[in-house]
Amino acid sequence: MFQLVWLGLECYVDTPDGNRHSLMPPFPKKSEILKDGGDLKVECVERIAKYKLNDVVTFSPNDLGEICLLFQCATDDIAKSAFEYLKRMGIAIEVIGKQVEHVAEPYGGEIPTSD
Fold it and tell me: What pLDDT score does 99 carry?
């Protein structure tokens, strides 16, 4: 058995009467008005996909989006840590391409970009 585990986000509204209204896909075909209002909440939840030997690994678009977001957050943290280390070591950094500019942003333009 193979298990893939990742962190996903659950978005929902808790209403005063104790009901929870999900804001996650699949969305209801008809919109719903919450007359008494409610509190919008977002929480991290552990998601698990289980596969047996020879199963085809498939993901829903929402699951794949969550996994990609998790990887992006992790790689951003790794890149920022690497930039900080290189800066402390006095090593010049040249960012090539706009796709990583958001990682270099905390350095206030000290990291040159080339186009």
Answer: 56
The answer to whether residues 33 and 69 belong to one domain is no
Give kind and range of the element (H or E) at residue 39. strand 39-51
Domain termination residue (choose one: 58, 84, 101): 58
Quick check: helix, strand or coil at residue 69? helix
Mapped onto helix, strand or coil, the DSSP state of residue 95 is: strand
Position 96: which residue type?
I
Residue 2 and residue 23 share a domain: yes
What does pTM read for this prediction?
0.60
Residue that finishes a domain, picked among 29, 58, 87 = 58
**Strand pairing class (95-96; 113-114):** parallel
d(C-alpha 99, C-alpha 76), whole Å: 11
Mean pLDDT of 68-97: 83
User: Residue 47, exposed/middle/buried by CB under 10 A (0-12, 13-18, 19+)?
Assistant: middle
Per the structure, the complete domain to which residue 103 belongs is given by: 63-115
Alpha-carbon distance 22 to 105, whole Å? 35
